[in-house]
Amino acid sequence: MEIQEIFALLTPEQRDFQLGINGADPLTKGFPRKRVLHAGLPGKMLSLTEGQQTWERLMAVPPVRRAEQSVYIHIPFCKTKCLYCGFFQNGIDQVVEDRYVDYLLEELQREEKSPRLQQGLVHTVFIGGGTPTSLSARNAERLLKAIQQCIPLANDYELTLEGRVHDLLPEKMDVWLSGGVNRMSLGVQSFNTKVRRQLGRLDDKETVLQRLRSLLDYHQCVVVIDLIYGLPDQDMAVWQEDLKALEASGVDGADLYQLNVFDGSALNQAIKDKKIARAATTAQQAKMFAYGYDFLTKRAYKRLSNCHWSRNNRERSLYNSMAKAGVTMFPFGCGAGGSLDGYAIMNHRFLKAYEACVGKGQKPLMVMMQESPLESIARSVIDQMERGVLNLNLLASRDERLKELRWLYDLWEERGLVHNNGVLFELTVPGQFWQINLTQTTLECMQSLLTGKNTLAVQHIAAQEERHDS
């Protein structure tokens, strides 16, 4: 079945979700809303017994020579719960933290001798959360020593510690930098004091800038910050000031993320209860995205991926690009996720279940999923689209049936979402804002072409407008 025939079977609403809205402004009305949080294809769930057996089998085999590998370590603690965040797991308790780090080190040490880990190199380690910088200096030192001992780091490794500006204290920074951290990723979200405080952030604008300067003064690591656009009370004027503060801060890079408001979230409830102002609509966020793109481009920031920007050559954002490309990622810690040789992995999210598994000498798997047989091609699409391009000739060289995707991209070019430069398709600024939609539709069309089944789906995600009208 050709792509045109597949779309002809859909309702007008479904076609709009897949193809976008014909005749509308491509930036603000290119699609009804963002379709998915992360683009991808579904896989097949394994039983826990199968998962344990599969993990042991994969870790017993050395990696392919010269293969890039990554490690993700999760720290599931936060001092406060921010309204917008969906990743909060546990508050801070020193006794609980001490015990957790004991189990985390045990999990790391258990894999230390495995052929898969030890007979290769690890190019990136990302310590995420939660708020990893909330760890006590003692526990941070223990963890960093274990990383150096258990993980075969490549000479040019990137070791990122994620956290909050509030934790940038000399006694902690000394430990991080002496322990091998060479990249700090800090969640500023907004420099505006009112915007920050009502979301649960602790420090005012001047404190944020002062603490960033104190870290930069070490000259020992890359410093990048996260900014979110579309927050309550963050109108275009506030967003413009946030970007000016970013430039003035002197940090090496920034990640610009769109706010998503979901049903059941604390932020959505606060908005409904009129305790906090409404978040920006998707159309307003699109304009903020375009302004941020223009602001950073004019100041010679380099776009590393859809959300990630570098101010200089120190910032590489290796972990993020490797994750999107589907590079092997070993997960460690409660709530950690990863992937290995065609399997997606998620560790237990609850401390008791995690600690029980580690205590039994098991990998603390909550879920192991066999990825789609098309995952290799899908990862190629995701990787390219994250960089704002798609080479259809490259895809067609893997399977001629994918030539039919040309119809889809010609349509999107007519609508102002992509541009054919004669070699590949480049996403326009509107196309970059709607990149997740374009990627997911591409993946589902690819799957339909290669399997002969209609796999197009409609997903209602991030409908900011509906929440504002409630």
Automatic annotation (TrEMBL):
Please, one GO biological process term? Answer: porphyrin-containing compound biosynthetic process
The segment(s) forming the Radical SAM core domain are 63-294
Domain of life, source organism: Bacteria
InterPro entries, per database record: Aldolase_TIM (IPR013785), Coproporphyrinogen-III_oxidase (IPR034505), Elp3/MiaA/NifB-like_rSAM (IPR006638), HutW (IPR026332), rSAM (IPR007197), rSAM_sf (IPR058240)
Could you name the Gene Ontology cellular component terms for this entry? cytoplasm
* PROSITE patterns named in the record: RADICAL_SAM
Under Gene3D superfamilies, the record lists: Aldolase class I (3.20.20.70)
Keywords associated with the record:
Iron, Iron-sulfur, Metal-binding, S-adenosyl-L-methionine
SUPFAM superfamilies in alphabetical order:
Radical SAM enzymes
Recorded GO molecular functions are: 4 iron, 4 sulfur cluster binding; catalytic activity; metal ion binding
Specify whether Transmembrane is a keyword of the entry.
no
Write down what this protein is called: Oxygen-independent coproporphyrinogen-3 oxidase
